[in-house]
Specification:
The chain is α/β, with parallel strands linked by helices. Strands 4, 5, 8, 9, 10, 11, 12, 13 and 14 form a 9-stranded mixed β-sheet that branches. It has a 3-stranded mixed β-sheet with strand order 1-2-3, sandwiched between helices. A hairpin with a 3-residue loop joins strand 6 and strand 7. It is elongated, with a radius of gyration of 21 Å. The termini are far apart. It binds adenosine-5'-triphosphate. Homodimer. InterPro entries: FSCA_dom_sf (IPR034904), MIP18-like (IPR002744), Mrp-like_CS (IPR000808), Mrp/NBP35_ATP-bd (IPR019591), NUBPL-like (IPR044304), P-loop_NTPase (IPR027417), YlxH/NBP35 (IPR033756). Binds and transfers iron-sulfur (Fe-S) clusters to target apoproteins. Can hydrolyze ATP.
Length: about 375
């Protein structure tokens, strides 16, 4: 029989805390525990600067859980969450919180690390694709943007962070479960040369809906850090729609290089897009630009273009708030059919007008990424 959450926690009480004081459960270091398919998922919160040194603690916790009768596997990760108001984790004045310096390796001797969001080894840049509300085509944009970045010659992965309604398995036409190496590191799934990870690969449809707060966070961190992504120029993260607390926490915890906001042209959608931009501003993640989706309609029979949706709204909005405008994606029937068939248009019809649009957007996004990375290069400061 598979043990329940309490028996897992009881077993974890045998694992001593750092410095051999107390145990990791009573010290409040263990996240919510999630059990699915006889596999146990949780994370252990440690100070960022001690992450390396505490690897044996992680390994011990994993060992203890795996030894429980009925447990098929355990996925345990160390997380270094930024605690509100914790002085050591606050960004230094003038230094953005998303700075990519390694917390443990680049901090000058004797000084606390400036931030707790460690980079992911091997991944050059992480881009969030977000929307203020659902249904604007965020996931469709994310997957085609990822494939367009690839078509532009980059090594790309995609992480479906929409844990409540994962859509990557369908959009990329991938089914089955990912393999695990040594019962720990997950091998990402792949199609069209794009590495992909999604909660949809790990749990059965329907299960994800009951996930809540901390469980979602630790699952996301595991999908980000416990996956053998290999060397990637860029990882595209398909964020859950909306601007609530869950999205804010996610935007805060993932070491994002920047965010792409997807909106439809209508005024109401633009209000939501603005909320999205504000959210990223709040956590000091640069907004790389806005994409206007379902911008105009291309008639399938004649190829004629109709501006029936108030096209141009997102462009005007982007100009008004000083955010780059990345492009206009038309509404076409084929994009919907391709998405549902798991054959995104950028790979199935690379010469389609829409695929050109996505590749142009990808070029602009990459330019913005580089502009922001250059700006983040270490500055010499005199203290
Ligand atoms: N440019 C487009 N032309 C035609 N259909 C589109 C376009 N973009 C997206 N769609 C369709 O709109 C629907 C919603 O798209 P998608 O799932 O990408 O949106 P989303 O914002 O990620 O939604 P959710 O918030 O539910 O995750 C899908 O059926 C998709 O195929």
């Amino acid at each position: 029989m598979v043990p329940d959450k309490n028996s897992v926690l009881d077993a974890l009480k045998t694992v001593r805390g750092p410095d051999l004081e107390g145990n990791i459960v009573d010290l409040g270091m263990v996240s919510d525990v999630f059990i699915s398919d006889a596999k146990v998922y949780f994370s252990i919160n440690v100070p960022a600067e001690r992450a390396k040194e505490l690897e044996p603690l992680r390994a011990a916790a994993e060992r203890v859980v795996k030894a429980l009768p009925g447990v098929k596997g355990a996925l345990v990760s160390l997380t270094a969450e930024r605690k509100a108001g914790a002085a050591s984790a606050a960004p230094a004045p003038g230094k953005p919180a998303h700075s990519h310096s390694h917390a443990h390796s680049h901090a000058p001797a004797g000084q606390p690390p400036k931030q707790a969001k460690a980079d992911i080894p091997g991944i050059g840049a992480i881009i969030a694709v977000a929307s203020g509300k659902g249904g604007v085509g965020k996931s469709t944009t994310a997957v085609n943007l990822a494939l367009a970045l690839m078509a532009n010659g980059l090594k790309v992965g995609i992480l479906d962070a929409d844990v409540y309604g994962p859509s990557m398995p369908r959009l990329l036409g991938i089914s089955g479960r990912p393999e695990q190496i040594d019962g720990r590191i997950i091998v990402p799934m792949e199609n069209y040369g794009l590495k992909a990870m999604s909660m949809g690969f790990l749990v059965d449809e329907g299960t994800a809906m009951i996930w809540r707060g901390p469980m979602v966070q630790s699952a996301l961190m595991q999908m980000l850090r416990e996956v053998a992504w290999g060397q990637l120029d860029v990882l595209v993260v398909d964020m859950p729609p909306g601007t609530g607390d869950a999205q804010l926490t996610m935007a805060q915890q993932v070491p994002l290089t920047g965010a792409v906001i997807v909106s439809t042209p209508q005024d109401l959608a633009l209000i939501d897009a603005r909320k999205g931009i504000n959210m990223f501003n709040k956590v000091e993640v640069p907004v790389l630009g806005i994409v206007e989706n379902m911008s105009y309609f291309i008639a399938p029979d004649t190829g004629n273009r109709y501006d029936i949706f108030g096209h141009g709204g997102a462009k005007a909005e982007a100009e008004a708030i000083g955010v780059p405008f990345l492009g206009e994606v038309p509404l076409t029937i084929s994009i919907r059919e391709k998405s549902d068939a798991g054959t995104p248009i950028v790979v199935s019809e690379p010469e389609h007008v829409q695929s050109h649009v996505y590749r142009d957007i990808a070029t602009k996004v990459w330019q913005e990424v580089q502009r922001h990375s250059a700006r983040k290069a270490p500055k010499i400061t005199f203290e």
